[in-house]
Amino acid sequence: MEYSEYRHLRFERPSPGVLQVTIDRPDVLNAANVVLHRELSEVWATFDADDDARVAVITGAGRAFSAGGDLAMIEEMTTSYDAVLVQLRDAAAIVRRMIETDKPIISAINGVAVGAGLAVALLADISIMSESTRISDGHLRLGVAAGDHAAVIWPLLCGMAKAKYYLLTADFIDGKEAERIGLVSRCVPQDDVLPVALELAGRLAAGSQTALAWTKHSLNGWLRMAMPIFEQSLALEMIGFLGPDAAEGVSAVRDRRPAAFPGAPAGAEGAGGAAGG
Q1: What is the C-alpha separation between 133 and 130, in angstroms, rounded?
Q2: How far, in Å, are 76, 211, 221 from residue 217 at the CA level?
Q3: Residue 245 belongs to some domain of the structure
Q4: Whether the model pTM is above 0.90
């Protein structure tokens, strides 16, 4: 794809060698519909083929990075096998292409990041997050496995104990805690998130491109070794969307109430309460 073909991503070149990618659906907190989810998988190949771009910075328009999957898209996945297959392909492509791209990617996490948006934020090679921002994987609130990135990257970033705690509870994490446990690279004041990310991108763009690429490629060997774990988690997530728990999870989010998952004790509240996925 050419940059001009993207509908929900906006592109700028703030300095030589730096490509700024802005997720641009601010009216819905940059939630990913089918089109945006596909674009988040395609953009890394476009960036990789751009000889004038050495480093990418991805951020969100307005007050959010990305509030996860659009509810209409998720709801369709609970009733349509074909819709699940589409998202299986695109979710896998986001992870694989971000890992395979040897050029550095920096995320400027300027606001809430959940689900698919969080996958992009945390799979970036360097992540800059604001102190006031909150992030959550969110899959458990929907009644599906944490499959779109978490199993492959969270244990490496913050350790198994913290990964299990936050993925099983779906609790939100603020910027200071995310930095403390190693989930993000840096936590800075809200107004500094994008400037810090762009300044860092400029430094990397001016450095040895072979050294950067080869170092990233080597480090990502840890992620490539874990790809069977990712593929299993993604498959289990997608199976879950066609089950009764996901149907109840989506209904609870839509109704803004605690989920009553089948098989849970009467009156019990699902992981993370009724917040969105």
Answers
A1: 5
A2: 37, 10, 7
A3: no
A4: yes
Q: Give the side-chain half-sphere CA count within 13 A for 50.
A: 22
Structural domain for 124, as ranges: 3-224
Q: Specify the pLDDT at position 271.
A: 55
8 Å CB contact between 135 and 113: yes
Distance CA 240, CA 145 (A): 7
Q: How far apart are CA 270 and CA 234, in angstroms?
A: 21
Q: How far apart are CA 182 and CA 261, in angstroms?
A: 32
Residue 68's φ and ψ, nearest 5 degrees, are: 80, -160
Q: Tell me, what CATH number does 184's domain have?
A: 3.90.226.10
How far from 71 is each of 40, 77, 130, 239, 254, CA to CA, in Å? 17, 10, 26, 18, 8
For the sheet with 18-23, list strands across it: 9-15, 18-23, 55-60, 105-109, 126-130, 186-188
Sign of CA dihedral 99, 105, 106, 112: negative
Cα 186 to Cα 175: distance, rounded to the nearest angstrom: 8
Per the domain annotation, does 83 fall within a domain? yes
pLDDT in tens, 20-54: 999 999 999 999 999 999 999 999 999 999 999 99
> 103 to each of 2, 157, 211, 231, 250, how far by Cα in Å?
18, 20, 10, 24, 37
DSSP string for 202-268: HHHHTS-HHHHHHHHHHHTHHHHHTHHHHHHHHHHHHHHHTSHHHHHHHHHHHHTS----TTSPTT-
Q: State the Cα–Cα distance between residues 146 and 114, nearest whole angstrom.
A: 11
The domain total for the chain is 1
